[in-house]
Amino acid sequence: MEHAKVGRPRSEQAREAVLHAVDDLLVEGGYAAMSMKGIAERAGVSRQTVYRWWSTKAEILFEASATDAEEELAVAPTGNPQADLTAYLKALIRFLAHSQAGIAYRALLGEAQHDPEVARLVATKDVLGDSARTVLTQALPAAPPDQAATHLIGPVFYAIMTGQNPTDLKPAELARTFLATYES
Fold this sequence. Notes:
Shape: elongated
Number of helices: 10
CATH class of the largest domain: Mainly Alpha
CATH topology of the largest domain: Tetracycline Repressor, domain 2
CATH architecture of the largest domain: Orthogonal Bundle
CATH superfamily of the largest domain: Tetracycline Repressor, domain 2
Radius of gyration: 18 Å
Strand content: under 5%
Structural class: mainly alpha
Number of strands: 0
Order of helices and strands: HHHHHHHHHH
Number of domains: 2
């Protein structure tokens, strides 16, 4: 026999308001300045509502980031591996360097370096790897998915995380180099 969930059902409108609030607050003041109280106030919901669904600001930020990443990193397959990988790399650069969700993801990765709870949270979903494996499965089905995903993401991830200028990244060249490794 299944048990009914306790409490009121989650309001999608309140959930969306909280997810947008956390993105805005991160951009305005950074991760350290965010609080559950501030998130609730910005979203126009009670703290009780926020705590009913999330235990920490990291959980909220991770949900917002992961949800947006799925959309922002999705690439429609064209049947042309060079074009598909180039499109994915452009989306990855845009996500990591310019998107609020990408900024949130980078903030969480930084926080995970010294907060074991955030590290465990981030480890629950491979946001970048999942998107890369999806593209690779379509573009290069014979490539080993995990290894290839790491090689595809690595140069962009490293450049963005070390503060290099994202406009210096050349997605078409990166895709060509990647394909030369995996198509030979």
